[in-house]
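Morning!

This is the sequence you dropped in the shared folder:
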Amino acid sequence: MTDTPAPSAATAGQALPEASAPAIELHGLTKRFGANLAVDNLHLTVPVGSFYGLVGPNGAGKTTTLSMATGLLPPDAGTATILGVDMWADPLRAKALIGNLADGVKLFDRLTGEQLVTYNGMLFGLDRATVATRVADLLRLLDLESAAGTVVVDYSAGMTKKIALACALVHAPRVLVLDEPFESVDPVSAANIRDILTGYVQGGGTVIVSSHVMDLVQRMCDHVAVVAAGRVLAAGTVEDVRAGESLEDRFVQLVGGRHHAEEPEWLRRS
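The structure's back. Tokens below.
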């Protein structure tokens, strides 16, 4: 879509990333929380220009992986690079390249929607005129114009998700990392978000999105990785990973855990 802010280089004054590097490269990422090994020596490469889905059961390590990839959570071991820039060796430069919609990260919700997106744009060094134009565009694209002057704490869950996406897009990042962007979003808004993300990828950007909705990932993404127990079980193009089956059926085969036991007698009505 032509109205979506085009992916840009890093913040003004910073060196450009490596032209031939993957959008995201995770090598040996590992994270423990006490005795729990949440991410176990995980390797993943996200090509530039891809629409990449990250799928897995609850507790698979998806959010922990994305948090380490985007600089929110330090890994116990391993590296994460964004377009060749090491997230933990050069975090300011790496973070300038990404837009991040993280699950569970609290927003400055005492600001209005317009103020919040403006604040995020200015954090990335954009001038006021550029920020004002982009904020207006994003509020219109995400159908939030009528809520622009409302404080975010009064937004519904779906509206909060959309204003967080606007914050992730305002600086026109090269890579978008979105953790469950469609959760709590109504079907019309979800369709609009898909259009925005598709236009963003067509304009040269890269998207990695985690989701539990297999049909959505199969229709929307061109690449996918299946994660369970902190490891990548399969990764590649959607067609290669699903191997002639639906992505949901292939996911269940890879992850396991489907139960075929009969339901208890007390659940039957006849």
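Headline: Residues 9-15 have pLDDT under 50 and may be disordered.

More detail when I'm at my desk.
O.
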